[in-house]
Amino acid sequence: MDKRFGTVTIFSSVQWLFFIFANTVMVPISVGTVFGLPGETIAMMLRASLIFTGLATIFQGWKGHRYPLMEGHSGLLWGVILNLGLSASSLGMSFTEIGGGIATGVMLASGVTLILAAFNGISLLKSIFSPMVMSVYLFLLTFQLIFIFFKGMMKVGEQGTIDVPITLYSFALVIFVSLLKLKGNPLISNFSILIGLLAGWIGYDLLFAGEAVQATASGDVSFTLFPLGQPNLEIGIVAVAFFACLMNLSNTVASISSGDLLFKKESGKREYRGSIFITSVFTVIGCGFGLVPYTPFTSSIGFLQSTRVLMRTPFFIGGALLTVIGLVPHLGSWLAGMPVTVGNAVLFVAYLQLFGTAFNSLSGKVFNSDTIFRLAAPVLIGISLMNTPSAVFAEFPVLIQPFISNGLLMGVLISILLEKMVNWSAFEQLELKNN
Predict the structure, then answer these.
(1) pLDDT the model gives residue 2
(2) Would you say 419 and 152 are in contact if contact means Cβ atoms under 8 Å apart?
């Protein structure tokens, strides 16, 4: 752990706290809402999410991959779970039946990944998620996050129209944080995310005092084990959750690989095994509280590149503060009052850096008119699916819809198939002969 502790460490810790919180708070709330849970149960899920996310983050940096990379709820699994919940009526199932099937699939997948880590299955994992597959994943993750935060910057009313003043304020905040990042002195640049969040929050309250922000972390909680539903054997739901969780391993490989590039190190089997073990353990624990499965956040690389604060000490402190907030509900209630548009605007700037990570992952690789397909096909198909309404796939079997409508998942799957089925080196050698 870093020995230096001072003003930079304190502000960096608060910056990490805001970053982790902003990436966590909406996940349990949205899942609980879709599954029709009472407010007290959603409050319990939110508090559990804050506590376990903070602890998982600390354990990953300490005994897992050992990089300052946030451990949080998987965006891929979040989308799948929300999709299954919204499809309850189409499936002819109750929310508890779907939730119970998800719990079974998640726990089975966690057991498989634990076995994989215990019996040195890391080589198999790396062979599936090759460098090119990880590049595709990084590009698609960048686009997915940017789409999410761009839409989140714009406040849309009940009539489906944009609230112009608040939306313009969000874009002004993006410009403000970008200028801090690009033209400020190193100290200001490193804390541009924190300055943007705090200044944006204060400015929002001053300009839009009439806009009430709902605080969600109330003191009233209702503890329920498996709040989404008791584990069951709804085979279709179990299979969807199980497969999606296995695909979630791509996050681990991409995060550690990106961390290696940023910190100029090379992680071994020990780091991969430790990371998978911690992710699986916290996923199983979180499953009992109705939480979306955990994963290392590859997007943390963009945050690190933006802040240039690579120390682990503030990272650990930020995780610990998040756990404390989960234990003290009034603190969570205060942080939950942050305007959503402000958080999205600032994170939009932070995640622009992730595009550079994706680009650099190609390591200067040159493509010709044939080999470009190994990158362009999965990336562009994935982006196209991201921008296709889910309703378009209504004629497909309901259990296939969560996969076919997920651009990130389908792009990675296409990339895996292309890497395994096509001899790309033959096309490269042919190009060299022709030249």
Answers:
(1) 45
(2) no
One-letter amino acid of 415: S
d(CA 130, CA 135): 9
Report the length, in residues, of the chain.
435
Six token digits for residue 196: 């943007």
Instruction: Return the C-alpha torsion angle 106, 21, 186, 257, nearest 10.
Output: 0
Entry pTM: 0.85
pLDDT of residue 43: 86
pLDDT band at 217 (very low <50, low <70, confident <90, very high): very low
Angle at which helix 300-307 crosses helix 340-360, to 10 degrees, equals 90
SS3 string, the chain, reads CCCCCCHHHHHHHHHHHHHHHHCCCHHHHHHHHHCCCCHHHHHHHHHHHHHHHHHHHHHHHHHCCCCCCCEEECHHHHHHHHHHHHCHHHHCCCHHHHHHHHHHHHHHHHHHHHHHHHCCCHHHHHHHCCHHHHHHHHHHHHHHHHHHHHHHHCCECCCCCECHHHHHHHHHHHHHHHHHHHHCCHHHHHCHHHHHHHHHHHHHHHHCCCCCCCCCCCCCCCCCCCCCCCCCCCHHHHHHHHHHHHHCHHHHHHHHHHHHHHHCCCCCHHHHHHHHHHHHHHHHHHHCCCCCCEEECCCHHHHHHHHCCCCCHHHHHHHHHHHHHHHCHHHHHHHCCCCHHHHHHHHHHHHHHHHHHHHHCCCCCCCCCCCCHHHHHHHHHHHHHHCCCHHHHCCCCCCCHHHHCCHHHHHHHHHHHHHHHCCHHHHHHHHHHHC
Arithmetic mean of pLDDT, 345-362: 86
Distances (CA, A) of 376 to 191, 200, 372, 431: 35, 37, 6, 18
* Closest C-alpha among 267, 262, 345 to residue 308: 262
Domains of the chain: which residue ranges? 7-434
In the block, residue with structure tokens 């600390």? 58
Which tokens belong to 134? 């990880």
Q: What is the mean pLDDT of the chain?
A: 87
User: How far is residue 251's CA from residue 123's CA, in Å, rounded to a whole number?
Assistant: 16
